[in-house]
Amino acid sequence: MPRATISQVAELAGVSTATVSRALSDSRRVSATTRQRVQDAAQKLGYSGNSIASALRRNRTDTVGMVVPSITNPFFTSLVENVEHVLQEQGRQLFLCDSRQDAEVEARHLRSLLARQVDGIIISPCHDRHSGAAVQAAAKRIPLVQLDRQVSGTSTDWVGVDDHEAMRLLMEHLDERGARSAAFVTSTMTNSSTQLRLIGFRTQAQRLGIHTREEWIQLGDYSVAWGRAAGRRIMDDTPRPDAIVCADDLIAIGVLRACRDRSVAVPDDVQVTGYDDIDFADFVHPGLTTVRQPRERIAAEAVRLLAATAEWGGTAAHTALAPTLVIRGSTAQRARTGGV
Q1: Containing domain of residue 136, as a range?
Q2: Where on the phi/psi map is residue 184: left (φ > 0), alpha (ψ -120 to 50), or beta?
Q3: Deepest of 5, 18, 30, 313, by most Cβ within 10 A of its Cβ?
Q4: How many folded domains does the chain comprise?
Q5: Which pLDDT band holds residue 144 (cuts at 50, 70, 90)?
Q6: How far from 72 is each of 79, 80, 124, 161, 224, CA to CA, in Å?
Q7: Where does residue 326 rank: exposed (0-12), middle (13-18), buried (19+ CB within 10 A)?
Q8: Predicted TM-score (pTM) of this structure
Q9: How many angstroms from the chain centroid is the CA of residue 72?
């Protein structure tokens, strides 16, 4: 069937083509009654208008690009979902890109989003240094907000969780549960969140007098498989730590599996903590004690900062939101004991 035209909509609604254009662009110069008549006619004829031409006239496309390191990671999946919900409420659409933890792939996605003329970009950079040039280049052209992770040497807004506060909550909890030694399993030091969590672990361990050893600091990636491999290494060491602190929940789930492989009871023999509070954290056995990031608030703030940058510009904002400690069965309810 031939595509409906604006003239046909105007004829059916009994108005001029100019009125149709104004009505479909939500112009205040059209009465509510006329707008409804035009919309009914457009719907009946299946008229969708020319979104590209409309975007050019309004100087916006009502689209936002989002780039995340891995869409398979449940934490980023949840962030994407929350950002999409906020944008949907505003009548805007999301273009999602997965960088696959590769800075070159990430740079190509950024260039593609710019070519699509998105109104802004929300990105969680995959690498602290290698992502910097592409992120800064994009930020010079359109509003850009960094989410969760951030790259150094860039002048953009950022929103995420307070990693130092999160590690304080976790380590004080383990201290109260009697842990006098702890290991830390994380990814390689390629992004800001990973670095801050390790710094926070070391700082809090020293402050609380919780013993750690360099061989207990295991660097790999954010995956269940790595958590299982690192957990086995730690379980095979002598002496074994009282607790294993993990930089995310996927790693922690792998560590729980490693403990089961080695017949090590959690939390009686060793306590395990995660980070992010993904949905699976409450379904593993025992339930995982972890840090909950306020994902809904992070998403809403990222979209707000994007709009504020587009409208006002100005100095970049750095927004660190408070985390929450979620206590489950992977940490013991026991009194503090002495010794290492």
Answers
A1: 63-161+294-321
A2: beta
A3: 30
A4: 3
A5: very high
A6: 12, 11, 14, 21, 12
A7: middle
A8: 0.81
A9: 12
